[in-house]
Amino acid sequence: MEKTKVVIIGSGPAGYTAALYAARANLEPVMFEGFFSGPAGGQLMTTTDVENYPGFPEGVTGPELMELFCKQAQRFGTVMHREDVESVDLSKRPFIVNGKNRSYEAESLIIATGATAKKLDIPGTREGEFWQKGVTACAVCDGAMPIFRNKPLFVIGGGDSACEEGLFLTKYGSHVYVVHRRDELRASKIMGDRLINHPSTTVIWDHVIEKVEGSKVVEKVTLKNVKTGEEAVHEAGGVFFAIGHTPNTAFLDNQIGLHDNGYIKIVPGTSITNMEGVFAAGDCHDHVYRQAVTAAGSGCMAALEAERWLSAQETSHEPESVHS
Ligand code: NAP
To answer: What is the pLDDT of residue 315?
Structure first.
């Protein structure tokens, strides 16, 4: 089995940045970019224009940005495998990382597997229908697209994300409707109040979206009252899922500390997990900021912390000097 100092699992902004820093520190990192679990490059591969990544005043598409990240990490010698990690064995060191086609013994591990936005299987929202043609799962990433300008926009959910995304979308839509399946928000009081009191938002309580229709892009939604069963069709320019994310941590099989919601526990302000030599970067531990730029920053932290940890290990294994 091949051996390496550091394996990076996952290839979004966090993973590529960790690879860049680890490679520049001569750690010769090996990265599993993922494949079936999601495209190499992570969530940004499914977005269009990214206008809030610093350094790109004219914006950049998500896939272009990830290609640049990837090239920069490769330039300094990161070994990349476009395959998924199926399991890890963290019971002893070196850790074992089992990819679909190859395995590694790794002295340290950086987990940067991200999170996946939850979607609902509503007719009209699927890939090949109106997914990315008016239906998305990230208002902050996609909200500024011209197709949403001055149109009625529909957000699904009742948590902080739905409130935040609903408020964010008021900058673009003619009016924002937040469709919630219950008669009470899950969101924090402050966020809920902000949403409810905003003049350009309306919460549609006790409703779900049954169907999304249009010609080339979204044009209408069918809403259903879950209490009465009554249905109504509304003009719509966009539908945004804001029903939470699932961190991609199942493959860890609970071998490191996870919160109840599956996010990796870290020492606050660091990338350090409860397992020595295992570091976490990006959305697999961060359910608050979830931005490309914060993920990239956390990838940098993970690589620096892995490097320090590895050199501390080497120092502690050096033979003690002999005094005559
Ligand atoms: P969340 O709190 O889990 O809320 C998910 C919402 O989606 C809930 O209202 C839920 O309805 C609804 N939902 C779930 N499945 C659904 C389904 N099948 N059909 C219809 N509706 C469905 O997720 P989140 O809003 O993404 O927040 C996640 C975490 O991040 C929270 O801890 C939150 O506080 C935090 N966050 C914080 C901020 C901030 O402070 N600025 C911003 C965003 C997120 P029910 O209520 O009926 O279950």
So the answer is: 82
**Which secondary structure element, helix H or strand E, spans residue 32, and what is its range?**
strand 30-32
User: Which residue lies with its CA nearest to atom 16 of ligand 1?
Assistant: 243
Number of domains the chain contains: 2
Per-residue pLDDT at 46: 63
Are residues 98 and 129 both part of a single domain? no
Ligand 1 lined by 119 (C-beta under 6 Å) = no
Phi and psi of 253, rounded to 5°? 50, 40
Domain hosting 171: range is: 119-241
pLDDT of residue 148: 97
Identify whether residues 110 and 212 lie together within a single domain: no
Of all protein residues, the one whose alpha carbon is nearest to atom 14 of ligand 1 is 243
Instruction: Judge if the beta carbon of residue 243 lies within 6 A of ligand 1.
Output: yes
Task: Answer whether residue 324 is part of any domain.
Answer: no
Residues annotated as catalytic are 138, 141-142
Asked if 152 and 235 touch (Cβ cutoff 8 Å), the reply is yes
Alpha carbon 102 to chain centroid, angstroms = 25
How confident is the model at residue 323, as a pLDDT?
47
pTM given for the model: 0.78
H, E, C per residue of 100-145: CCCEEEEEEEEECCCEEECCCCCCCCCCCCCECCCEECCHHHHCCC
What is the best residue among 116, 121, 154, 161 to mutate for testing ligand 1's pocket, by most ligand atoms within 8 Å of CB?
A: 161
Task: Give the separation between CA 162 and CA 243, rounded to whole angstroms.
Answer: 7
The reply to whether 131 and 103 lie within a common domain is no
For the chain, list residues with pLDDT below 50.
Answer: 321-324
Distance 163 CA to ligand 1 centre (A): 9
